[in-house]
Amino acid sequence: MFVMRSTVCLLVYLLVAVWTPQTKAGARTPFFDLTQYNDWPQFEDYVKGVAHDNPSFVQLKTIGRSREGRPLLGVRIGKPAPAGRRKIAVWLDGGNHAREWPAFHVAVYFIEKLVNGYLVDDKITKYVNTLDIYVFPVLNPDGFVYSRTSTRATIRQWRKNRAPENCTGTGPFSSDLCCEGVDLNRNYDIGFSHNNYPFNNPCSDEFQGPRPFSEPESRAVRDFVMSSEIYGRLYALVSMHTHGQLWILPYNYHKRTYPQDFKDLETLANRAADRVFAYRETKYRVGTAADMLGTATGGATDWIKKNTPTKYVYVLELPPDMKTWFAFQVKPHWLIPIGKETWLGIEVIFDQVIEETKNFQPTSEPSSNGTVDSRSPRFRQL
Ligand SMILES: [Zn+2]
């Protein structure tokens, strides 16, 4: 009898051990094949589906529309805050350059990791309970769709959005050329000047646009980071691009120009990069792009660092390194390994954010003129 009772107990225990995580989690994600490159409709269906299927901790976010009317979609992953409290928020995105497909896919990998790990993995559960994690896989859907339409280099390697043609372009032997598209990562109001060459040329891959925030995609990001939903509680932002294995810090609109807390950003970036390296020896260089590569004005992350209280603001240029030119789209079997190693670096950032903000109560509203002095403390200590 004793033996039988023990056996029954063991069986019950095993059943509970096997079934509990799934039952507790109740999380599920729509199928998304990360062993191949997907088209925009797959991203759209996935992001909408993951929010629909997990309403207790995933919310769909549409922050605006592209030039051609596609939604700028993301999710907020996080258990709702207790009444009267604001959670610290973090932001991950797949960038705004059309051809940089791996970054879009790695953002989906992050969503998979967070949603499927909730109530299963202790670390992930802590992140979802403590933080609001915003993930925006594709912030330039028009350019992405266009880059998928042909293997012709001029289309497959498209970088900009799909702004209508502008006929003030110049080439080596002519002027008044008409070219389409604006580089969304040159369109922000930081270091913007009509004298910036080649960013002032509509036929350049890096055309900044006729004026700062001329594009709906960059206006949508600006308006969302300034909105009462996340302003004052967004503490870290990582924007992924390809390629180069660079962990890029602000500022990039001018060489040797740094925010006051640069050392903090650099120290954390080095720790995160070391963690990534430990996985399969992917080596990142850490620094500003201005110092490592050359000045780039109008960048999204530079503008966000300068105009919001967000502390840790990074651009990751994912693998491969810079030895190969135009390696924006690695073979798709690398997407999951890149997702795994990059996630380990993201964990280092999340851990630091949680540790650093445990006694903070985020402030609630943007300042009246819509901008802030980046040197003043904005996270009020309790
Ligand atoms: Zn890029």
From TrEMBL:
Cofactor(s) demanded: Zn(2+)
UniProt keyword Ion transport present: no
InterPro entries per record: Peptidase_M14
Annotated region described as Disordered, given as residue ranges: 359-382
UniProt feature, compositional bias: Polar residues: 359-374
An annotated GO BP: proteolysis
Domain Peptidase M14: 36-353
Pfam families tied to this protein: Peptidase_M14
Active site: 317 (proton donor/acceptor)
UniProtKB keywords: Signal
Cellular component aspect of the GO annotation: extracellular space
Gene Ontology MF term list: metallocarboxypeptidase activity; zinc ion binding
Signal peptide, first to last residue: 1-25
Keyword Cytoplasm carried by entry: no
Family named by the database record: Belongs to the peptidase M14 family.
Protein name (Swiss-Prot/TrEMBL): Peptidase M14 domain-containing protein
The organism of origin for this protein: Caenorhabditis nigoni
Source species taxonomy: Eukaryota, Metazoa, Ecdysozoa, Nematoda, Chromadorea
